[in-house]
Amino acid sequence: MAMSEELLTDLYEFSMANGYYATLPHDQEAVFDVFYRNVPDNGSFVIAAGLAQVVEALQNFHFTDDDISYLRSLNLFSTGFLDYLANLKFSCTVRAIPEGTPVFPREPMLTVKGPLLQCQLLETFVLNILNHQSLIATKSRRICAAAEGRAVMEFGARRAQGPDASVFGARAAVIGGCTSTSNCLAAKKFGLQAAGTMAHSWIESYPDELTAFRAWAQVYPDSASLLVDTYDVLKSGVPNAIKVFRELRAAGHEPIGIRIDSGDLTQLATKARQMLDEAGFENAKITASNALDETVIQALLKEGAPLDNFGIGEKLITSSTSPVLSGVYKMAALKVDGQWQPKIKLSNSREKVTLPGDKMVYRLYRKDTPDQAFADVIALADEKLPEKLLAINADPLATDDEIELTDFVAKPLQLEVVGANASSIETDVMKLQASMKDQLAQLPKATQRLINPDVYQVYLTPKLFELQQRLIKEHHQKAQA
Amino acid sequence: MAMSEELLTDLYEFSMANGYYATLPHDQEAVFDVFYRNVPDNGSFVIAAGLAQVVEALQNFHFTDDDISYLRSLNLFSTGFLDYLANLKFSCTVRAIPEGTPVFPREPMLTVKGPLLQCQLLETFVLNILNHQSLIATKSRRICAAAEGRAVMEFGARRAQGPDASVFGARAAVIGGCTSTSNCLAAKKFGLQAAGTMAHSWIESYPDELTAFRAWAQVYPDSASLLVDTYDVLKSGVPNAIKVFRELRAAGHEPIGIRIDSGDLTQLATKARQMLDEAGFENAKITASNALDETVIQALLKEGAPLDNFGIGEKLITSSTSPVLSGVYKMAALKVDGQWQPKIKLSNSREKVTLPGDKMVYRLYRKDTPDQAFADVIALADEKLPEKLLAINADPLATDDEIELTDFVAKPLQLEVVGANASSIETDVMKLQASMKDQLAQLPKATQRLINPDVYQVYLTPKLFELQQRLIKEHHQKAQA
């Protein structure tokens, strides 16, 4: 992302900003929220990721002369507006939920407050980055859950949707739980563990498989992990691997193991395990890597396939079964003549009606089990959460019954990350992974289930709910007038 | 892609290259092919895209000091190998099928010939770029075919899998037929038409919809395209748009039209069309943009929805119904002691057995209908296609019956793009789109069908087929020995 994020922007953002510049006070302030409505793969939450790249871009948000020349060449924008852009002093405040946090539908993942013109210009690239990385972190969490503690290596660079998708995708995959990536650029850029062994082309570059394995063992005597499926796993690959493992051991080295990249993994791994064990290589690991995802891994492990590690390619790096996180960026408030006005986007679909106003989201823990979260609450930013709360389910498809929430400790999820009071954010990817694991451990097990997870309740405070209902009513009255 | 393509490489490519360096002659030459086996969305072909970025990267392929330091820090590679990389003189020759060409399964899209070490290091990023852009160009071709000549705008930046996916995806979408993109960075970088109007936030920034429309018309009197679904399309959006269109016309301006982004597009567009026509705005265009892809567009048009333009978001920029093109990079030949040896990758699955040897692919045209292609042929690179050919179907699931091909003109599809005799490649994206349209017009209509397309035949020459069969037999004999 050495590219210009400032121009990674839909044309209409510039068209609108130019229009605001012409017709509204230039310092008119607004609040926008990023949130999503649907969870990939019918899960119950998303793992937030991408914030570090958003913050990095916003800390240096400016338009180059080249950007301005391009925008001028479109003959769409006023000179005044282009001058405004050229001299832009970025002055938005951004609050966001830290990376690695499980986030539920409708919760504001990120909130931008500042001049409407500037808020508008951030929409496209903020969504691009958060949608992409959160999508991949979410998929990674699912795959790692299926792997039940076994190492999961991210191997998808060649099938990622472009260079950035491979690099930032690998970052997100590690936030979501992967132990390593095959992608050297990602490993270098983010300090990740790089992983990988050999391809079939290595085997084909030597007269036969045994010679190829011996050549590998000669170069990497202490890290020999051999790909055994070039010709025939059980007749050729594993027997040749065992020969070379014996030679290695005789020379004082211990082999790592084998990798199987095709065929029926349960049958092949079971037989290979027997052969390795019988030859005295009980510690040699078996890695599987053929078109795997959480569903396949669960099925293999349920069958008892003796697999130690997984290498995951295209199905992780593209989240192929659910390749889009449809996060949106919606106006929540606008300051008009010095007064904040909450804003709502209506729709015929209950699900698409937005939550108005500047908001804060809290995770609620029981006072007596302070490490177990039981619900989240979305409130207005300027209200203090009372000790006892009559809350309304945030799910627009749930009934409007009130529920009494009491005896809880509320932890605010958003932090200020850009602005005068900004906290510095965690950028160490392994620490983000550790934080994700801690937070997962605080959620009910049933909501982490990969298939048909239990719904984790997200509530609205009465104030927020009443504000939303009032705005809906006002719009309907206006429409009938 | 200002990032270092040289490190956008799976670790195992470096591990293998380091191993080759230690155990094989450093100038040992090889041939690798890029090809794919399965077409996204069950289509019959892929539109090749991404070559310009591959060539650009290869023309300047080198490792920086920083890259070398990183690789050294892994403690995996010999000093000799790291010095080789630091002083690498890239010397591979690359032949490829030009962008915009329809390419069928198993055809070599790109062929690299040169030192094995260097060939190996290109695998990851060459596949990343070709797989991604060809995937999106292919999806774009499908969506544009469904739109039957109506303008299709690429609107997906916010849901693309990272910044590059949005920028190179927009490029690929235009190669595949889109008229424009909302992505300013892509438009600037590749000289594409930028497109877009307003979001709902524009409407919400003014006291009411009519005021918002008037403000827009004031700023853009000659390009007023109004988003009419913020509150209610038929009761509010279209009547307000018509009011503003009348005011514009009275002031000597003609409006562009309206955009509908939610609701039932057929019903809303039909009624909106009536209202616009009755008000005298027969030329006002209706653009639709809600979660569209080729299937939805076909359904809407079949119902007679009066839509003039389409804006396509996430379903194009991620190819969401089929988000992976699984192109592979396989060794086809290796020069051992001065002699080229054809190489094959075996598998228990017929589909996965590779085509050995340095190859060339030809598109065949009938002599009497020189603008109609009827089949492709894959041959060995050093054989001259005879005038009459007993060919074997390249589809490993087809029978091995020979078919006589005669009275054809054969056009080679690959060009040398990197090397001593390299042709300069077309990089003008609109010219690539024009070339794609020309080449589509040469293919049978039935093979372009979006659902259940007819199979377009790809044949092997007898020499290539016999070589493949001989190598399979030799491997089986060796395995039994």
From TrEMBL, chains A, B:
Entry annotated with the keyword Transferase: yes
Pathway, per record: Cofactor biosynthesis; NAD(+) biosynthesis; nicotinate D-ribonucleotide from nicotinate: step 1/1
Modification after translation (UniProt): Transiently phosphorylated on a His residue during the reaction cycle. Phosphorylation strongly increases the affinity for substrates and increases the rate of nicotinate D-ribonucleotide production. Dephosphorylation regenerates the low-affinity form of the enzyme, leading to product release.
Any GO CC annotation of this UniProt entry: cytosol
EC number: 6.3.4.21
Pfam family, one: NAPRTase
Record-level Gene Ontology MF annotations: nicotinamide phosphoribosyltransferase activity; nicotinate phosphoribosyltransferase activity
Domain Nicotinate/nicotinamide phosphoribosyltransferase per the UniProt entry, residue ranges: 152-347
Tree of life domain: Bacteria
Nicotinate phosphoribosyltransferase C-terminal domain sequence ranges: 359-468
Biological processes per GO annotation: NAD+ biosynthetic process via the salvage pathway
UniProt key word Transferase: yes
Domain Nicotinate phosphoribosyltransferase N-terminal, first and last residues per copy: 7-131
Reaction(s) catalysed (UniProt annotation): 5-phospho-alpha-D-ribose 1-diphosphate + nicotinate + ATP + H2O = nicotinate beta-D-ribonucleotide + ADP + phosphate + diphosphate
UniProt keywords, alphabetically: Glycosyltransferase, Ligase, Phosphoprotein, Pyridine nucleotide biosynthesis, Transferase
Family matches, as Gene3D superfamilies: Aldolase class I, nicotinate phosphoribosyltransferase
Family stated for the protein in its record: Belongs to the NAPRTase family.
Entries under PANTHER family matching the protein: NICOTINATE PHOSPHORIBOSYLTRANSFERASE
Physiological role: Catalyzes the first step in the biosynthesis of NAD from nicotinic acid, the ATP-dependent synthesis of beta-nicotinate D-ribonucleotide from nicotinate and 5-phospho-D-ribose 1-phosphate.
The protein's name in its UniProt record: Nicotinate phosphoribosyltransferase
Organism: Limosilactobacillus mucosae DSM 13345
Organism lineage: Bacteria, Bacillati, Bacillota, Bacilli, Lactobacillales
